[in-house]
Amino acid sequence: MPDAVMTKSNTAQGAGSAMLEVRDLHGFYGESHVLHGVSLDVRQGEVVTLLGRNGAGKTSTMRAIMGIMGKRTGSITFQGQQLIGMAQHKIPRLGIGYVPEERGIFSSLSVDENLTLPPVVKPGGMTVPQIYELFPNLQGRGSTQGTRLSGGEQQMLAIGRILRTGANLILLDEPTEGLAPVIIEQIGVAVRALKQRGFTIVLVEQNFRFAATIADRHYVMEEGHVVDMIPNDQLAQNMDKLHTYLGV
Amino acid sequence: MFDVLGVPPQVLFGQLLLGLINGSFYALLSLGLAVIFGMLNVINFAHGALYMIGAFVAWLLLNKLGLGYWWALGLSPLVVAAVGVVLEKTMLSRLYKLDHLYGLLLTFGLALIFEGAFRHLYGVSGQPYPIPDLLKGGQNLGFMFLPNYRGWVVVASLVVCLGTWFAIERTRLGAYLRAATENPVLVQAFGINVPVMITATYGFGVALAGLAGVLAAPIYQVSPLMGTNLIIVVFAVVVIGGMGSILGAILTGLGLGLLEGLTKVFYPEASNIVVFVVMAIVLLIKPAGLFGRER
Question: What is the topology classification, in CATH, of domain A43-67+86-246?
Answer without folding.
Answer: Rossmann fold (3.40.50)
